[in-house]
Amino acid sequence: MLCVECGKREAKYDNLCEECFLKKVKFTHLPRHMEITQCPHCGAVKFRGEWKRLDRKEMFHELVMRNLTVLHEYDAIDVDIKEREERGVIHLDVKFHIRFKDLKIIEEHFCEVTINYESCTRCNRYFGNYFEAILQLRGMREGEREKVREFAYSRIEYYAEKNENLFVTKEEEKKEGVDLYLSDKREAKKVARDICDRYGASLKESPQLAGRKDGHDVYRVTYAVRLPDYRSGDVVQIDNIFYLVEKVSKSMLFLLSLKDGRRKHVDTKRHKIERIIPQNELEEAMVIYSHSDYLQLMDKDYNILEVKSPFKHPNGSKIKIARINGEVLVLP
User: pLDDT tens across 107-142, in order?
Assistant: First the structure.
């Protein structure tokens, strides 16, 4: 069958020969002028009311593909975009690499792009000091505040990777602790729970009516996280036995008996902690002689102590001890 256009060559493409087909058929169309909306603060781009975080290359690629009109079906298409700016005007040189049957076609377009600037939802909230929750960190020991604060921020950053609307609006240092104002109360609750799991802390929620929106009550929530009196590394007394706290998890304490070296775990909701010796109140001593369960120690005042312990320590080693009612307990 011959080409219906020229009648000279074989019709291989839509009743046309290759030459006539390429003269007559166009696959793509782009408008000469396109507009895009971008946040001046964070660079987010708005498409059909939705804000997206894109780099500049991705932004122009999506702009081109959203404005592309397909005039003829094809088997595959790739796009190459080169950006240049002249006198404040952005120009795009766009090449579409098209495959149709056994043909490889390049179509070029030249476009101007106008960028309109508008603050995105997130930045409007951020610069407007928007917050939905207050995360209160309480019960921290001296020198511990920064460590707990850093853990809180690490969890905020973790959840912010999945929810860009989560951010810290402000931070307040108080005598009793730290207050973090967060933009999302649901994510704030996750952070609060993570801190509780890490430090065995308690959590108290206090919602407060902040106003109405679209006919519904809007609440802000205060999440008060209070760390317990004990920490990993402390010595505690439970049921008249002294233990080293090896790990704290939620309401569970993982313990090592200083009496016989056995491990156990207890639920602090069911067991009363009778006494706590913080790790910074433990003393240091040196092992002078060790044999079986017998240890001879020298304390910081050069006093000689003779004790029994289930833990083995070599001669000359420095160890931690706890003095309780005249009794000396050796830590592992």
Answer: 999 999 999 999 998 898 888 889 999 999 999 988
Residue 268: band (very low, low, confident or very high) from pLDDT cuts 50, 70, 90: confident
Residue 252 predicted with pLDDT over 90:
no
Number of domains in the chain: 3
* 261 in the same domain as 222: no
324 and 283 share one domain: yes
Burial group, residue 96, by CB count within 10 angstroms (0-12, 13-18, 19+): buried
**How, if at all, do strands 133-138 and 45-47 pair?**
unpaired
Q: Identify whether residues 213 and 284 lie together within a single domain.
A: no
Give residue for tokens 């971008």: 38
Weakest mean pLDDT among 78-92, 162-176, 205-219, 293-307:
205-219
By DSSP bridging, strand 50-52 and strand 45-47 are antiparallel
Domain with 154, as residue range(s), is 129-226
Assigned domain for 100 exists: yes
pTM of the model: 0.70
Q: How many Cβ atoms from other residues are within 10 Å of residue 6's Cβ?
A: 13
Do 249 and 318 lie in one domain? The reply is yes
- On whether residue 165 sits in a domain, the answer given is yes
Question: What tokens appear for 11 in the block?
Answer: 């019709």
Q: Are 209 and 256 contained in the same domain?
A: no
Helix, strand, coil in percent for the chain, rounding step 5: 20, 50, 35
- Predicted confidence at residue 215, as pLDDT, reads 63
Closest CA to 152 of 177, 124, 175: 177
